[in-house]
């Protein structure tokens, strides 16, 4: 969606920002158009600038009796049809790991905001609350909704998805830098709530040379008291042992973007490495040899170093309570194997439009595509799958995937590459003629 313009019934232009900057005008204009919108034909209802199959996508003007207020809402089941940058866009949960959550974990608001149920308790001050590492309750139906809480990995994937960073268009070239990505993440956090709090209130991105990010981190820690609980997000440069038997993590931008010592207890470091083996393997390489970035979302306790005359006065000391790592390409696209990285890079080089569905907290028995091409003649996307292993368990899993894709999209209706044979990557499906 271009900008935040809404067209009201009768052609009146309406600014979505008025909800925040001019709430009286927001209420007055929506109230005036409420009855007209309800009785109007679909093509004459309120709408944003998104289109689907050449037609505008309508919006609803709705009234909340409990607050005596008006708001705009997406039309039922049409959220996935909006442009990904549109505030009314809602992802199709069946095309990603979102399908693993029960309905109460991600609650979509009518205004496009979401509330989530996290596996950690968010606190501002006081002693850290223990992280809940107990197994999530499971249903008896494999591959179906079973997760009842969202872990930090799920939150990282949600932020990435809401920021539109799991998608690629040719026009994104040269604009997908780590700093730009973090700026989009910061914006995405303003529309996600957990335990009644905006994630953006607790989220501090850090990046090299980004004074605004650095000032925000230091201001949050300085003003919130002696000990704070917040989220740090940035790109990992190193994860190394320290003399005390723990580990230190360095995010890009230390010294020239922010000033923070980041300690990772040995138990948490071991959990991160065990849970995110691809990220750990990437960090084990010399920085010059890495073909990808590792993103970290870390829930930390933080305090100012206030020792008088200390050379580190003004720095922050933070300890990681829990967190998640994610490996992304140079184009900021997440991937789960070297073969997926090869496909993602090839799609970018070919100038294709596509998305990378994210796993969130789904177990491996949930089937969804590795990639979805968005620029073919198929309106709902063209699924793509990479087969990268030959062990017995994976062979069984592969057969399940092939049966699913054949049944859902028809034999020959989906793209695949068996990377285990040493064969070249097959040609991609033809793109839509421009």
Automatic annotation (TrEMBL):
Residues 123-146 are annotated as: Disordered. It holds the Pfam family DUF1173. This is DUF1173 domain-containing protein. It comes from Novacetimonas cocois. The lineage of its organism: Bacteria, Pseudomonadati, Pseudomonadota, Alphaproteobacteria, Acetobacterales.
């Amino acid at each position: 969606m271009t900008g935040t313009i809404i067209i009201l019934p009768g052609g009146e232009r309406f600014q979505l920002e008025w909800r925040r900057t001019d709430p009286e005008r927001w209420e007055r204009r929506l109230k005036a158009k409420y009855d007209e919108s309800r009785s109007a034909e679909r093509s004459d209802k309120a709408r944003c600038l998104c289109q689907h199959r050449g037609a505008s996508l309508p919006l609803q003007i709705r009234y909340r009796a409990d607050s005596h207020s008006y708001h705009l809402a997406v039309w039922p089941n049409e959220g996935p049809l909006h442009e990904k940058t549109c505030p009314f866009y809602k992802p199709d949960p069946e095309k990603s790991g979102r399908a693993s959550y029960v309905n109460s974990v991600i609650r979509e608001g009518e205004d496009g905001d979401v509330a989530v149920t996290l596996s950690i308790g968010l606190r501002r001050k006081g002693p850290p609350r223990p992280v809940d590492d107990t197994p999530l309750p499971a249903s008896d139906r494999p591959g179906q909704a079973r997760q009842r809480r969202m872990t930090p990995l799920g939150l990282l994937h949600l932020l990435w998805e809401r920021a539109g960073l799991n998608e690629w268009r040719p026009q994104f070239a040269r604009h997908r830098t780590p700093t730009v990505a973090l700026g989009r993440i910061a914006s995405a956090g303003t529309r996600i709530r957990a335990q009644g709090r905006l994630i953006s209130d607790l989220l501090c991105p850090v990046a090299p040379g980004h004074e605004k990010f650095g000032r925000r981190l230091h201001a949050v820690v300085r003003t919130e008291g002696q000990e704070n609980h917040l989220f740090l997000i940035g790109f990992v440069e190193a994860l190394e042992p320290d003399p005390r038997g723990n580990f230190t993590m360095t995010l890009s931008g230390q010294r020239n973007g922010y000033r923070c010592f980041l300690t990772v207890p040995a138990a948490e470091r071991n959990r991160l490495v065990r849970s995110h083996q691809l990220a750990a393997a990437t960090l084990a390489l010399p920085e010059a040899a890495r073909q990808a970035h590792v993103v970290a979302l870390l829930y930390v306790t933080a305090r100012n170093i206030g020792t008088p005359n200390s050379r580190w006065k003004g720095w922050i000391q933070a300890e990681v309570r829990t967190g998640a790592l994610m490996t992304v390409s140079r184009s900021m696209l997440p991937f789960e194997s070297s073969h997926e990285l090869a496909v993602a890079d090839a799609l970018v080089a070919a100038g294709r439009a596509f998305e990378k569905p994210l796993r969130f907290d789904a177990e491996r028995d949930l089937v969804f595509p590795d990639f979805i091409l968005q620029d073919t003649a198929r309106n709902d996307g063209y699924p793509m799958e990479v087969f990268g292993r030959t062990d017995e368990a994976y062979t069984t899993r592969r057969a399940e995937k092939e049966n699913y894709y054949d049944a859902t999209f028809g034999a020959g209706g989906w793209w695949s590459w068996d990377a285990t044979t040493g064969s070249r990557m097959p040609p991609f499906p033809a793109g839509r003629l421009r």
